[in-house]
């Protein structure tokens, strides 16, 4: 059966089409590593997913959105994965009744995890650390700093760097770059404030 | 020395932090595409206020380049030879020299 034929059967609500949806999409996805743990946590069954998919495809006519690009199976799987992800009550700012129950073991992460890091501050810290490490690299050997910046910022090949700086061979360029990277990595812990948060 | 024919390479140098406010500077050394030993790189020098620096000397790759209205010229051959030099300085007339370094920009 081609994807188009399968799509037609599913759209018409035919048992043959939906049987395939169960066999090829819902059941395998519900057993996959990605989804199985989350489904167990949120008390979601494969039958629930099947019902949600039917509502979405037939009830809300999402079946018409499939244009034949990519496989029909893959297209349906994306919806099923989305249902599993959206089953997380914390995504909707709500606390699940199950977790709120006094007998709940609390094994799941706290539903009210508040961020403790400012992303912009972390980015700035990382950038400042990069600049400090690069400065140390420059002071240790300017040629290494030039090679590093030509590779990483200007995306020059080893041949181009060899010709630009007059280095003897491309192997030499690669060795200098490798040493520059090692130097930066070794210098990082001295200045890294973001990682020490 | 031979620069790629399809890329402009620009190195940015900043002054190191100094005690005196207003002494900072920034210099950009630009190698046009296809630069070779006989070519020159353009050097642009601005002060902490963003204005072009005048009447100064910019030291890079062992070369002392006169800076006039924020501009100087660095022979590409000299850059290749002096690439191991760490000394980057800006000497403004009547002021003490301020060191700098290549930055990752």
Describe this structure in words.
The complex is a heterodimer of chains A (197) and B (105). Chain A is an all-alpha fold and 197 residues long. Chain A has 2 domains: 3-100; 119-196. Helix content of chain A is 66%, strand content 0%. Chain A contains 10 helices and no strands. Chain A starts with a helix and ends in a 6-residue tail after the last helix. Mean pLDDT of chain A is 80; it is low at 93-110. By secondary structure, chain B is mainly beta. Chain B has one domain (9-103). Chain B is built from 1 helix and 8 strands, in the order ββββββαββ. Chain B has one helix at 76-81, and strands spanning 9-15, 25-31, 40-47, 56-60, 63-67, 71-75, 88-92, 98-103. Chain B has an 8-stranded antiparallel sheet. In chain B, strand 7 (88-92) and strand 8 (98-103) form a beta hairpin. The radius of gyration of chain B is 13 Å and the shape is elongated. The model of chain B has no long low-confidence stretch (mean pLDDT 90). Chains A and B meet through helix 7, helix 8 and helix 9 of A and strand 8 of B.
Jot down its keywords.
heterodimer, A: mainly alpha, 2 domains, 10 helices, 66% helix, B: 105 residues, mainly beta, 6% helix, elongated
